[in-house]
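Researcher: Going back to the complex we discussed earlier. I've cleaned up the inputs and rechecked each line, so this should be the final set. Can you rerun the prediction on the complete assembly and write out the structure?
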Amino acid sequence: MKDEATRSLKREQWHDLARKLDWGFSYVDAKDVFPEAMSGTPWLSHQDWADWDEPYRTSYTEYVSSQVAKEASVNAVREAIGRPEDFARLERPWLSALKLHSATLPLAEFAAAIGNLRAARFGRDSAWRTTAAFGAMDEFRHTQIPLLLMHGLLPWDPQFDWTHKFFHSENWVAVAGRHLADELLLCANPIEFAVGTNFVFETGFTNLQFIGLSSLARNTGDRMFENMVNSIQTDEARHAQIGKPVLATLVKHDPEYAQYLVDKWFWRSWHFFAVVTGFAMDYLTPVRDRTASFKEFMQEWVLGQFQASLEEMGLKRPWYWDTFLASLDNYHHMVYASAYTYRATVWFDMVVPGPEERAWLREKYPDSWPEFEPIWDRISERWKEVGPEVEWHTHGATPVGFCALCQMVLCEGAPGNNHARVIRRGTDAHIFCSEPCQWLFEKEPDRYEGHKDVVKRILAGEAPANLLQLLRHFGLSPGDWGRDAHRGHYPWAKREAG
Amino acid sequence: MLVPLYGFLLGDTLGLIVLVQDTDPVARIAESLEQAACMRVVPTGRNRVASGGRELDLEMTVAQAGLAALDRVDVYPAKAD
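Model: Rerun complete. Updated structure for the full complex:
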């Protein structure tokens, strides 16, 4: 009788057979099993997808083993440093970076589980489907970990409630977030999901948040956040590999559509991360803990590596590249100054950059920052006029405009040249923050036209125009709406006032 | 009739909604926008208003200036005398 060792197949003897298990259909047509509406465009024969591969080639056993180890590691760190008193030691502005991350990403990851599950059923090659199934399980984990960690902080700080609440609210940032996540993660077919999510969003941008911001978290002393996102990043790095082989096949058969999807999702991902990561890196991280600016992280992780990936694929940079480069110097500064003066409309506190922070920003953004100086001078002066604790003197009350495509405030361009533009289709006016947003809308008007931005909801009587009522509509109350992180108690304000 | 406009004040960081009556003078747009943005931009009190690439007469009414709901209007400081 053969012993156990000789009866067991070695991994390399069975693994490819298990991963690449596709078969022909005799009773139904392949198009019925993989309808184009669900599997994506272009619809190709399986032969065209048969070379699909990715480098991790994980088996289910390996997946479970490694995930158990990761969970144990996160839990150990949580038990050691995940209590409210551990977070209370962190700087208040950094906690806002944590609240911004926690609200915008975990439930978007849950939506990404749906996108992955669609690929796990309708992806056109079995290895793709297997990797997507692992991806779906990853995304559940990326939802559950922050929900668990932040829930413990709720009794200490009610703003952490937005970790779960955000995507279920009508808050203006949530309207923008859902507009992006619904299309990219919930509704996209597996081909568009692979290009938009796996290739652009995850390969191009999440490194910013999960590696770049994680390194800043370490500097601030937030080892819990650092550990959490590092753990998540190891999953992202694996399932992001779905993107390249899908895009490679798409480029081979329909290069124009491939370029369109890259251009579309690069711009939309850019706006998302400019706010989530841009705010955190350039404003909410204490200046002594910053190692590089958001722009420098973008240059390293996105401009360098992403461009190389595009070239490798035979694709061009997006047509709006020059606009994007200008935006890199301005957009998150435009949104941050705007949001600071409407901070009660968000669920995290914001901070005025003081002399030291402004010197740092001037050095990092020499071409654009001079235009923002008068704005922060003005806000600082208004704080000095009334003293600490009087939030409303530096707060706007007039409704702001929102882009009909990205649903963000109209902040593209620079203080001296806002790029917003209005078009009319029939009797309807649509405003866009930028040329790329207008281009995306006009490519698929039927998809976007029916969506009402916050202003259109106000004009239709579906949302209130009065700011205090609008805050309630946004899901906010005095207990959790955003304030100045220091309540106006700034050393520079006191010193100069004296 | 109430006319909502997208207002952009030079030097500001975002577009705001300016609500004016069609019988209001164009100058009211500049006043409203300066007031709405005063926590970010120092008001000058002397401005020009433009829309669709043309400068508007400040004394004209919003209706006479041909402004329609959700048009973009830009407000700039008046040139020094």
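Model: Worth noting: Chain B has one helix and five strands.
Researcher: Good, that matches what I expected from the previous run.
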